[in-house]
Amino acid sequence: MQRLAPISVLGTGMMSRTLARRLAAAGYPVMVEWRDPGTAQAVAHDLVGPVRAGRLSEAARAGDVVAIAFEHVSATGADAGELTGKVQLDLTSAWDTTRQPIPLAVGHTSSAP
Question: Which residue range or ranges hold the Pyrroline-5-carboxylate reductase catalytic N-terminal domain (predicted)?
């Protein structure tokens, strides 16, 4: 049987929990991270499959693949070296691009005819 890559899911929202649930149901070893260890333990306990909870640095090291579902990972104290060489899935949307108007076609400076 082929070994499935361990996956860490970093984040607190519905997307993180859904992703962790689906991965665990498919048999992937999953580590969930929440800033509140009690929440992480509860989520890991509720999911079916090979799921465990851990702190951010532990979760970052544990996964061959790391799904990041919150912005500004560097502000959390995660060491960039813990993510070096890992496949990183950024599940966030940048605020500055989602709130900007759609750019005009090349060569146009106005939407007026």
Answer: 7-90
